[in-house]
Design a protein that fits this description.
Length: 285
């Protein structure tokens, strides 16, 4: 299961898949990626992921080795070959292999790698129990709107959270305002029933799940305020949650050890998760 990968035009067993040690993704983190969920063998919210990939590529002046319109078929074929029913498809494009030099190489072709991962998204225990969050300084670069494969800051943030028994890190800027999770978008629901989340102002990744959730909020009787919120405000909301393609919607039940609300998943968060799951099924292609 999941032992087939796609590398530069070929489906190959993952243990035989090879990328050069001179690949700029390996040497410089010079590349972009996407992660899309799979339910019942189908890609979820695919258009949103494809258009973000297109934008990431454009922003770093990177071409795709394959027409973007062919990527969907490659991913579907990989899902079929791996017999994947529920999980994730990971896709990465780097600037390819060339003698190590910082400027763009003249003769390298981009590297495309795709693989799948089985994951229990719908029945994830964290959806029932909620997750604990730790806050950490956001030490990332200024182009967080690009889904870059350079993820060292997020790796360190997540590890700091894991080391304290938490499942996610919420990063905050020098002004004490939360940017987002190490690998998810961050939300609070105020006691007045307003969803607060940071706007797509370049300081966060424009989450595909975030976008869908904001479109569904109305059905939950919630209004939206797209503004930055502080760590202090995040410690005392009615509810808090995170969203991502790999987890959908997860309730946050504590931040830095302080319980959120009653310290159990909030009802409106649970409803948003249900609504997102319905949306995901409808969007499946
Ligand atoms: N991460 N913010 C960051 C920094 C992320 O890495 C992610 C996703 C998100 C949520 O975006 P979306 O809803 O489009 O998945 C927000 C993926 C899942 C990952 O790196 O594995």
């Amino acid at each position: 299961m999941n032992d087939v990968a796609y590398v530069n035009g070929e489906f190959t067993r993952i243990q035989d898949a090879r990328v050069s040690v001179l690949d700029r993704g390996f040497l410089f983190g010079d590349g972009v990626y996407e992660v899309a969920a799979v339910l019942e063998g189908k890609l979820i919210d695919y258009e949103a992921h494809l258009s973000r990939l297109e934008r990431s590529l454009r922003e770093v002046a990177l071409g795709s080795p394959t027409p973007l319109t062919d990527l969907c078929e490659i991913q579907r074929e990989l899902i079929a070959r791996n017999g994947l029913r529920e999980g994730l498809v990971y896709l990465q494009i780097t600037r390819g292999a060339a003698a190590r030099d910082f400027g763009f190489p003249k003769d390298a072709s981009p590297t495309l790698v795709v693989f799948t991962q089985e994951k229990n998204i719908l029945a994830a225990p964290a959806a029932r129990t909620g997750i604990a969050v730790k806050t950490v300084r956001d030490i990332r670069w200024a182009r967080r709107d690009i889904k870059s494969i350079s993820l060292l800051a997020q790796v360190l943030a997540k590890q700091a959270a894991v080391a304290e028994g938490c499942q996610e890190a919420w990063m905050f800027d020098d002004d004490g305002m939360v940017t987002e999770g190490a690998s998810s978008s961050s939300f609070i629901i105020t006691k007045q029933g307003v969803i607060v989340t940071r706007p797509n102002d370049g300081s966060i990744l424009p989450g595909c799940t975030r976008k869908a959730i904001l479109a569904l909020a109305d059905e939950c009787g919630l209004s939206i305020d797209e503004r930055a919120f502080s760590v202090e405000e995040a410690l005392d909301p009615a509810e808090a949650f995170v969203t991502s393609a790999s987890t959908f919607v997860l309730p946050v039940v504590s931040i830095d050890g302080d319980p959120i609300g009653a310290g159990i998943p909030g009802d409106r968060t649970k409803r948003l998760r249900e609504l997102y799951i319905s949306f995901a099924r409808v969007s499946a292609t």
